[in-house]
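Just scan this pair:

***
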Amino acid sequence: MKQFTFERATTPAGAAAALAHTPGAKLIAGGTNLLDLMKLQIETPTHLIDINRLNLNQVEDVQGGGLRIGALVRNTDLAAHPRVRSDYAVLSRALMSGASGQLRNKATTAGNLLQRTRCPYFYDTTKPCNKRQSGTGCSAIGGFDRNLAILATSDQCIATHPSDMAVAMRLLDASVETVRADGSQRAIPIADFHRPPGTTPQVENALARDEMITSVTLPAPLGGKHIYRKVRDRASYAFALISVAAVVQPDGRGRFAYGGLAPKPWRVEAAESQTDAAAIARVTLAGARTSEHNAFKPLLVERTLASVLAESRS
């Protein structure tokens, strides 16, 4: 780990200003991903801005029946919140399927959205990686890509986004709220928050350099039956081969979002007018590109969807 300086922010706008004024600065809260990356020298911040003492750890009702989740709400607390469990159960279930209990006790809402890919070539500093160092190449293309993306990839990157929580938030049409150094605020639809790699795989989200997440807002509850199904190589503490978040209404209409398929939480609204798993999967996976190692994913999506739909009718 390289040397760095440290400060504690006292206001969200002050933290954003410190980001703007200090080249190489990073925010830190739970640190469950950042510290690992610093130990491997994949992330080498020159300055850390501790935001743990900012007053961003509340879950609050908002006008219209929705819910605002502070950026620093811990994953464990969010999963256990009474309104999340009753009205947004798919989010609670997604959170509980991620990481370990110890990590969920430290990880925050904003940090979960901003965690970086678990592509093995990103973590292997002996291998080229365009996401880690732009212009060096992608070792995953032509490599062992069993866990990697089949949708929205480019010839520069095929990494997936690792979050379970973000998949449920994409399903629920969450909005990411931010503040900048000048105090201005904006709301970014989560559908637009994470970026596909294109020619700039190192740019992973829509945040400006001096912009910090303050909260995530969920619209009014959808009702229906909430299901989160995660398929992985072992029963716990593993990232998804694929995951399916679903809210299915009594009349059979459903929303579906997916993890493990793309560099961002994946949802294709046009597929939701279909009524059976094969048709939903066919529309959702249009344009998918597989390799010999991850060619199983399309069929796994269809079978997992079939299981989810069967559960929704039970």
Summary: DSSP finds twelve helices and eleven strands in the chain. The first helix runs from residue 12 to 21. The longest strand covers residues 211-218. The radius of gyration is 19 Å.
